[in-house]
Amino acid sequence: MIGPATKTSPLATKLISNKGPIDAEITLKENKHVGKMILRGSLSEKKFVTSTKKHLSQQFPASPNSFYDDNKVRVIWLGPDEWLILSDAAELDSLKDNLTRALIKSHSALVDVSDNSTIVEIKGRYSREILMKGCSLDIHPSVFQTGCSAQIDLGLANIILLKTADEPIYQIIVRASFASYLWDWLVDAAHEFKVRIEK
Amino acid sequence: MLHIECPWCGFRDDAEFHYGGEAHITRPDPSITLTDEKFSEYLFLKTNTKGLLLERWCHRSGCRRWFNVLRNTITNEILEVYPVTETPSSKQGKETYEKNWRRESYSKKTPKTDEAK
Amino acid sequence: MSSQRFRLKEAGRLDRNAPLKFKFDGKIYEGFRGDTLASALLANGVHLVGRSFKYHRPRGHLGIGAVEANALIQVGDGNSTEPNVRASQVEIYDGLVASSQNRWPSLLFDLGAVNDLLGGLIPAGFYYKTFMWPRKWWMKYEYFIRRAAGLGKAPTGRDPDRYEKMHAHCDILIVGAGPAGLAAALAASKTGARVIIADDQQTFGGSLNMDTDCYINDKTTVDWGKDVVTTLEGLPDVTMLPNTTVSGYYEQNYLTLLETTKPHSFKSTIQQTRHRLWKVRAKQVILATGMIERPLVFANNDRPGIMLSSAIREYINKYGVTPGQNPLIFTNNDDAYRTAITMRQHNINVVAIVDIRENPNSELFRQAREMKIPVHVGSAVVTTKGYSRIKSATIMKLSSDGKTLTGGRRILGCDCLAMSGGWNPAIHLFSQSGGKVKWNHELATFIPGGATQNVLAIGGCNGAADLAKSLKEGLKAGISAARLSGNKGHPPATPSVQEPVQSATRFVLPIPTQKNKFVSEKVFIDFQNDVTLSDIQLASREGYNSVEHLKRYTTVGMGTDQGKTSNVNALMLLSQILDCEPEQVGYTTFRPPYAPTTIGAYAGRNIGNLFSPVRTTAINRWHEEAGARFEHVGQWMRAWYYPKANETMRQAVDREVTAARTNIGILDASTLGKIDIQGPDAAEFLNRVYTNAWLKLLPGTSRYGLMLKEDGMVMDDGVTTCIKENHYHMTTTTGGAASVLEWLEEWLQTEWPNLKVYLTSVTEQWAVAAICGPKSRELLQELCTDIDLSDKAFPFMGYREGTVAGIKARIFRISFTGELSFEINVPRSYGLSLWQKLLDVGKKYEICPYGTEAMHVLRAEKGFIIVGQETDGTVTPVDLGMDWIISKTKPDFIGKRALSRKDIIKADRKQLVGLLTDNATDILPEGSQIVEEVLPKPPMSMIGHVTSSYFSPNCGRPIAMALIKSGRDRMGQTVYIPLKNKPIAATITSVNFLDSVSK
User: Taking all residues of chain C, what is their mean pLDDT, rounded to a whole number?
Assistant: First the structure.
């Protein structure tokens, strides 16, 4: 008999168990299996905006290079007509269906990209220094504040970088096939610090 | 490393961008019969500008949007950034746009040697 | 062990409680923590540290910091060794190993020194003039010339050290932490500006550490500097980078900095970073790079022990070491008097001051006289003696025009000579920034002129010779740069400064040489490249009067030194020869890096497994566990073949290929590019980017398409499926995924912005298992019960959505092998699970995983092309024999017009054909050239090349594809592939081998 299907995250082989000291200066972990979808549409089309506000979030849209959290979703600006929506994986399908129905008359697109990428979280006092080793963006806290996002290269991988709190915590959305490289890059960049890896 | 101002994402290093060559090159209307010579002008001939050039860039690592730039190829100074579907609005941009033979026929601007005689 | 004979009892900013041992040329010496290799060697009286580049003359320390032109040293041993390092820039640590360069067999007895005796025979351009005959021997000559003129040796093994990179942004980058730089940092930091201040010395302060005869706000210069450093250290937004050379200044205030991190002195379990390359984007840049002292130009001015006067003062005041006990001072200005006075204050016997000026009349002059230092005015050193170190100098009176020597000779014994020929602002970075330089008559040097970027040159870099002016300019620049970068604040009060007043300089260039000599003595202009006065004169006589020509012909200003001490002297000489103003001679371009930068720093951590991202699929772990061999496809790592125990590659591939045609093969096809296309104009868009017709593709069906570039050449191919109305799923080649998406976006955004289409990359959203072979339907049926898989209900090129092994899946009935085949797409996180279930259930059908090599063979058996293998950007669909895919009726598609250009429709273009070797065991190497007729030796006229070649188990023989001129008109003809050992004969056939050969 066939057993039930199981999910495997892109970094499953890197994250077998917790590793490293509790008082670490850097902590790395994967936020796996977060629901994600791309929303496309034109802000100049009134119907698109009102429907999205109603069925996704009243705060829609996010302004360029930023994201916001609302109503159990996270909306990340990717382009003038493009947003990445994060939600609980279990709720993504119904969210997508509702929006699809609401936007049926708009020129818009919704694409499930839950598995296209994964999320790595880096936190700890030297997080910014590590990112500075491979990212040409100015991420000084006075410039790249909580709620800021950027699509940028880190090392040799393209990522979406989010500043999720005032403390030195960043989330990195990276394409699934680059996740392993990016993970190795981060661990290497953190070599002079005390690093903890959380499963 | 040039610092290019993406109209959406702000200033970023040029390594994040894809260069798209000269801007405002008109693609020949497919419904019009075109001689091989005219078509080859569109396809192969590029100006090699020393000075101000209108050119296309795409923010590949960022928002993936194309946009146009007025750049001085000698100093690498970028004087204007404007939407890909529009024409430049700065004085120097307008002048460069007006001077650009690419929007006309190359053969009109530089008559063949036998015609010139 | 040698004692530190030349170490002063006091003075210097060293940790005298931390003695360190190091080795130079095999001998052990002692120094203190805080010493550089140069200061520690000088403390031990070691002046001879190298041999010159061309003449192999003994050379010693000339300057300090980055200004050292002579003392290039090999540092470290094993694969960590670094050649051509300035001894003045190496911080010593316990156990440091260093050695001299460019000498054999030893530094004191160097056979290459014969070049010095033959000096008159090897003038500028000698090598080019002499070794050009016979022409083809140049390569042999060059080998020996390069060996003789070598610098240090590069390590041969892998570099064991770690190199890092750092990106940084700031409001203000300050280059140089001398008085001007520190003042600027102080003023700027008070406004809250984000400041980075870098200095190539390990201790901040620059000339503050040297000019101990000055006072700022009644504090010593050293204390004032320390106070400022302490203030800056307490500020979170001030980054201080000692031991950091700003090496390059690029567009839009982008600068590169090379930081040498702490030496390997403290043992640690983590690998130490050796260099860190900073890439800084600054809103404003302040250049406080100071001045470089100019050597005097006289005969034998290059002996060990002859040094720049300010360097000597710095060695005394910063390192507590004197380069000699009996120094002679030779100067054309007041500053060298400060060196003499400093030395005298340390009870060093200053032999005399030889001053070119006839009537020096300044406070410093009087002070020197009061201290009973003999001063010879209107005089010059005309030559020197001493081999491994200067022993004496000959002085004579100068005529009033400075062009001849008068009076008698006088020989003064000395063990060190301090020379000072004036000062040049260190304008290298300013020039790199695109700024113009201008000639300043008073200083007789170039100073910064108009800037083209947001940069300010201040202090010595701006020609300011005195401390008060430097501090004032620093404070002013700091505040103005802070304001320009959006900060607010007021400048701190200007400090009161006590410093000696200096009088004018007299420039005599060159010092005349004595005439009564049989052998002319060498007068050095460029110490590092061994360029002499006569080289400059010769170059000019031969017509090299442009400064750029002069540089290339004589090599003046080249090498790692980049003319720091030589350029201005060379230019002044050239202008004298040409009888014009130096600014008419002009200036050569300064090129980055300012000082040599290790290649390791440029590579950073992009080495080993981080050299390039390795992209893997969701099923990768299974491939690894199954013992697959992998191949790189772009950045992807794909399973190539799966050898069983003792199988060769050929045996494994044959087995996999056979299984796919007899039972079931399974391939991980996840790497194919996938693009989600939505919108009311999606079909129209596809119709324009593909060559064939797309308007009538029904939901649930797929079509193969070719994309061309506008020049008609094949760019990519793939299958695109209509998921539902206005919604398509496009596949691209593995390597083309990113570029195709960019290409499509370019057309949408720039050429057809009116088309309503949205594109989204979903390459990694889907894991793809392709099952192929006659039993694949039976297998799929077992795992998928909600789709009718019968040929009638789900025909070839069909598409269905359903559930496979409990996972929601998209199934495409498409084939790249010619067999019955299903490509099953599931969300990536389920990929591994799906794969394992297909294999478990497939066991009874003898399912066989196959890799990319078998995939290549399977498609070649059917004559299917691979873009990038059969095509190379010069191949049209017509060349490929794929005319059937070009719509004749569509008004437009990308590349349409190009296909009717007369060059594209020529009959003799290379066309894709099959090749069967006459001998059925020969497998042609891919890429081989093809000829009609084999000649005894090349050249032979080539008519094409082999694009793909394999052994085909299903055909039972090798098969190959080739692009051959007019290939389709040559069916059945024999052509030859001239390989090294023997030519191979082959017959031109159709490319569908499976149908033509096996039938």
Answer: 92
Q: Would the pTM of this model clear 0.95, i.e. be above it? A: no
Residue C558: inside a domain = no
A 47-86 near B (Cβ less than 8 A): 64-65, 78-80, 82
C253 and C326 share one domain: no
Residue B8 has its nearest CB partner, among A64, A136, A158, at A64
The per-residue pLDDT for range C47-78, each reduced to its tens digit, is 999 888 888 899 999 999 989 998 889 998 88
**Terminal-residue alpha carbon distance, chain A:** 31
Q: Let me know whether C219 and C338 are in one domain.
A: no
Question: Tokens standing for A159?
Answer: 């990522």
Q: Which residue has the tokens 């307490």?
A: C234
| A142-167 pLDDT, tens digit each | 999 999 999 999 999 999 999 999 99
For residue range B50-68, what is the model confidence (pLDDT) as tens digits? 999 999 999 999 999 999 9
Query: Which CATH number is C986's domain given?
Result: 2.40.30.110
Structural domains in chain A, sorted by start: 26-32+116-198 (3.30.1360.120), 35-112 (3.30.70.1520)
- Chain C interface residues (partner B, CB cutoff 8 A): 250-254, 279, 281, 434, 452, 710-711, 742, 745-746, 749-751, 753, 891-892, 896-898, 901-902
Tell me how many domains chain C contains.
5
Are the beta carbons of C678 and A178 separated by less than 8 Å? no
Q: What is the pLDDT of residues C411-425, one digit of tens each?
A: 999 999 999 999 999
pLDDT digit string, tens, across residues C801-856: 999 999 999 999 999 999 999 999 999 999 999 999 999 999 999 999 999 999 99
Shared domain check, C174 and C138: no
Task: Report the Cα C177 to chain-centroid distance in Å.
Answer: 27
Question: What's the CA gap between C250 and C281, in Å, rounded?
Answer: 10
Domain that holds residue C71: 1-151
CB pairs under 8 A between A and B: 35
CA C157 to chain centre: 20
Running DSSP on this structure, what letter comes out for residue C125? T
Helices (H), C690-842: 737-746, 776-783, 831-842
> Considering CB atoms only, which of B8, B61, B65 is closest to A153?
B61
Report the topology of domain B3-25+48-116.
Answer: Folate-binding fold (3.30.2270)
d(C-alpha C979, C-alpha C929), whole Å: 9
